[in-house]
Amino acid sequence: MKQTAQISLTVNGETVEADVPVRRNLVDFLRQDLGLTGSHVGCEHGVCGACTLEVDGRMVRGCLMLAVQANGANVTTVEGLADSGRSAALRQSFMARNALQCGFCTPGMLASAIEYIEAGGASDRNAIREHLSGNYCRCTGYQAIVDAVCDVIDGRVSA
Amino acid sequence: MKAPDFDYQSPETLEAALALLADADGMAEPLAGGQSLMPMMNFRLAAPETLVDLNGIPGLSGVAIEDSWVAIGATTRYCDLEDDKEVIEAVPLIAKVLPHIAHAAIRNRGTIGGSIALADPAAEMPAVLLALGGEVVLQSASARRTVKADDFFLGIYETVREPEELVVAVRLPKAKPHDRFGFHEIVRRHGDYAMAGCIVAADATLAGVRVAFFGVGDRPLRAERAEDALAGSDGGPAALHAAVAALSDLECDGDVSTSADTKRHLAGVALKRAFSELTA
Question: Which of A45, A118, A126 should one mutate to test binding to chain B, selecting the residue with the greatest count of B CBs within 10 A?
Fold first, then answer.
């Protein structure tokens, strides 16, 4: 065993080729092999949402997908969301609303919230909470995070 | 934790996948969305020698709408069903249930076939299959068979699927005009596994009623005595009371936090709420 596989994928707009152990999950590959440490690793069983990142236009759990499964895929991490400006308004509103304290959950929160906002989600606190229900925050709490998402949807942030 | 080491295969055809399973002597595990299998491997609760990744097989996903059935390919993801207006129209129960299955990021990967094959007793989709009287299409390298939902689930994570077989499609009957569906689950937090959940499927006049529970026993459970209490009734409080009373022999199991008696009580609550929410 100790099988490896050759993969080729796009990460934040750049082509990446690598030889990865098949058991390495996607978020570990991004963090350890590519040095993209923005995506965080929390529970490693799909519950906490800290590793949420975008694969082919959909937000997924980076810990529940193998790196080898991302062969040929287009992956965007929280770094890519920042570089392209997609997260600019949300990052500003997170700061304005104190929507993070330790910041561990923030990359996943941003990714999940961006999916909701870009899909045309309403400024409805219950709907936002439902969409973010797969992302744990263990310090600041959720009110400020929902506030920040509402501010972006309602156009109260200019980035 | 991280998954133990394994051999990874990514066949490009169904035939190649079935051949891998046939040769593996039960030591290979099919990988669909991975939203349950990967956590189990990371917890070291599962340690397959070989993973047979089904995601690269084009014909295994997608939906075919037939005269009276909807055939859903096993690796069709929940997010694709949520976006499919034809499926929602043909099987309106799906639209009620999907938002309650885990979270958006999980539904972006999770598949209907994976959920059915895993047979988690607290999962929604096996109960949908049971409540609607659906079918599971199983295929091995040598044979293909179709199993009715009532005969498919055996126990916790246990079904009639043999190790060399794959769930290739899930078949759900199309709703008839004026059919109505109710769904309710009792959860601690949106997206969590249900402490108890109930699905009611009924025709316009309550002549035929099917009731299925999840999260209360070792598998999704039909409640035939409750169905008898509701079928042909006026659907009023007395009939509903009789249906709840008829859950006395529902095969409830306790878990670490909830006794079997409490599960039975919650099943009754879920039944009342699901019944009160019956809509087309």
Answer: A45
How far A50 CA sits from the closest chain B CA (Å)? 11
Of chain A, the end-to-end C-alpha distance in Å amounts to 50
Task: Characterize the bridge pairing of strands A4-11 and A14-21.
Answer: antiparallel
The answer to whether A36 touches A30, Cβ cutoff 8 Å, is yes
CB contact under 8 A, A3 and B55: no
Q: Report the residue of chain A nearest B44, measured CA to CA.
A: A45
Q: Which residues of B touch A22 (CB under 8 A)?
A: 6-8, 51
Low-confidence ranges of chain B (pLDDT < 70): 280
The Cα of A65 is separated from the nearest Cα of chain B by a number of Å equal to 7
CATH number for the domain spanning A60: value is: 3.10.20.30
How many Å apart are CA B54 and CA B57, to the nearest integer? 6
Give the CATH number, domain containing residue B206. 3.30.390.50
ipTM metric:
0.94
CA distance linking residue B262 with residue B244, whole number of Å: 14
Best interface-test mutation with A: which of B42, B54, B100, B101 has the largest number of A CBs within 10 A?
B42
Structure token pair of residue B171: 């078949």
pLDDT tens, A36-65?
999 999 999 999 999 999 999 999 999 999
A4-11 and A74-76 beta bridge pairing:
parallel
Mark which of A20, A51, A81 sits at the end of a domain.
A81
B88 and B35 co-located in one domain:
no
Q: Which of A87, A83, A21 is nearest to A52 (CA)?
A: A87
Q: How far apart are CA A111 and CA A122, in angstroms?
A: 17
